[in-house]
């Protein structure tokens, strides 16, 4: 899935040692650019922008109830061109220290997030090449069809419906997915 609006989503990695983790990013083949405010803007080897920040991360909110169900942004999905997939998987696992597990066939791998981390990270191998790695948000939904319809009523556009998820595009042009994962279970 290629996001037609570049630069729309990036990760913040919270750490007590920003300079130490920045050195690790460089050692693993990423790029770093320190900022005057104490955080570091980084790039993965495939070009996904992310930041290293020294303040503690937030807590995971509970699912939000809507007429027809509940939903929760529960996952960031990294969309990786096929030629960069193995390198990106290794980079993110080595950088975070989270184990990499296969899930749902050859096209997906998941980083095993520790308890207390609010968002899961899924790495998706795209079918086609693109200039670099992008990312999108995934929502866990009690009723994926009702949630997709609710988002369309709010201005989202249906891109396609797959077996486990529905791809939508928000009014600003960024893609995201409503999934059939139950909120609060991942």
Automatic annotation (TrEMBL):
Domain of life, per lineage: Bacteria
Pfam families according to UniProt: Glyoxalase_6 (PF18029)
Family matches, as InterPro entries: Glyoxalase_6 (IPR041581)
Residue stretches making up the Glyoxalase-like domain: 75-178
Name recorded for this polypeptide: VOC family protein
Source organism of the structure: Nocardioides panacis
């Amino acid at each position: 899935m290629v996001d037609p609006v570049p630069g729309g989503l990036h990760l913040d990695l919270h750490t007590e040692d920003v300079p130490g983790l920045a050195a690790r990013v460089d050692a693993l083949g990423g790029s770093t650019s320190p900022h005057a405010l104490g955080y570091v803007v980084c790039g993965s080897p495939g070009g996904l922008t992310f930041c290293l920040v020294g303040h503690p991360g937030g807590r995971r909110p509970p699912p939000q109830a809507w007429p027809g169900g509940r939903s929760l942004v529960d996952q960031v999905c990294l969309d990786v061109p096929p030629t960069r997939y193995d390198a990106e998987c290794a980079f993110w696992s080595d950088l975070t220290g989270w184990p990499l597990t296969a899930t749902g066939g050859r096209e997906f791998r998941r980083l095993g997030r520790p308890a207390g981390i609010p968002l899961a990270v899924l790495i998706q191998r795209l079918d086609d090449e693109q200039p670099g790695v992008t990312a999108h948000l995934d929502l866990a939904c009690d009723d994926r069809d009702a949630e997709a319809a609710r988002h369309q009523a709010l201005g989202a556009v249906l891109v396609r419906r797959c077996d486990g998820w529905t791809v939508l595009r928000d009014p600003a042009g960024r893609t995201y997915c409503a999934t059939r994962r139950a909120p609060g279970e991942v």
